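Morning - L-homoserine inputs below, output right after.
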Amino acid sequence: MEPVKVGLLGLGTVGGGTVNVLKRNAKEIARRAGRGIVITHAAARDLNKPRICDTSGITLTSDPHAVVNDPNVQIVVELIGGDGLAYELVMRAIQQGKHVVTANKALIAKRGNEIFAAARDQGVVVAFEAAVAGGIPIIKAIREGLAGNHIQWLAGIINGTGNFILTEMRDKGRDFNDVLKEAQALGYAEADPTFDVEGIDAAHKLTILASIAFGIPLQFAAAYTEGITKITREDVTYAEELGYRIKHLGITKRTKQGIELRVHPTLIPERRLIANVDGVMNAVLVKGDAVGPTLYYGAGAGDEPTASAVVADLVDVVRALTSDPENRVPHLAFQPDALSDTPILPIDAVETAYYLRMQASDKPGVLADVTRILGDHQISIEAIIQKEPAPEMQTASVIMLTHRVLEKNMNDAIAKIEALDAINDKVTRIRVETLNAGK
Ligand code: HSE
């Protein structure tokens, strides 16, 4: 049988990795797919740039439309990124009846609802395994492997760059910017690295995971996003003293009131497996009612790990070429007419535990004032540490762990604590999750 012809948009890190994996493993891939899969046409912005792959046998162009419009191309792989030109090209491919494979999380999180509707109209597949957690087959695991479960929550380290930075800061005391530069040089970071460190990239991925876990439309705009730029070495050290690690987590949870969808630095008990996921590695912990907790771990970024997911999608699409559209796995795991309108909760309505750090004047009654304010807001304290001030300092660091409380109560309490004369500076607040199997 003739090999399936693929057009590639973008020949950067992931594009180069995809060319290499498809070539190196061509025989194995053909045995799985039932046909060969070859890239015949590829577009790159700068054709003179050095490549990590051998492009012989591939027609190269700087015009991505030429690839999409090539009548021989049956599947378009979009690896350009962003939701501008990439959106235009993906929609054009769909309108021409071509299947699409994309690694573009921003595109799916922000415009996936309309892209999937267009794909359904045209009877084509839009596959996006590489959009979340790089090489970990997390979309397939949740969408197909856990299809018998009522999924209760999931929590993930889903940005490799951020995890790499937090790990290097903790283990080697390295400076934030220095580690970020290394992540950029290694090809992990987004084109705009604030997407990594401010949690936007993780929020794109979490939006996608929440939709396939709970059967809700993609709602990126409703996600709460907080980055890691304010995490200090002190907080990392105090968290360790208390038996916790700080990780940048994406968390989504079903509650009676609605769905939580939030990305923020989080203290998690150090004995949890996910607390020990370091460097550029990603992990997603999913809690289903039948299976219990399941953990998925692997490289979340990089050329070949991401290519692994792109190529797996290509194999799936090739197998689907001969299946009726109504017999395919739905894009968002649930049938499109069965999506739920459960609301996404604002962060004020989320309940969690907290780590608090404040600088308090070293005089009698300060701690009593702070604990009274917390008590007035139904906030119960689980642990407290006071660090004696250095001889030249007038203030002591007070670190507290609280029990679970509504975020709104915590915000009100923090405002009152910050208004105390004896409290200097802002109160540092980091959310705490135990990620208990039972809850
Ligand atoms: N910038 C992303 C990360 C790349 O660091 O995880 C993979 O999506």
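Note: The mean pLDDT is 95.

O.
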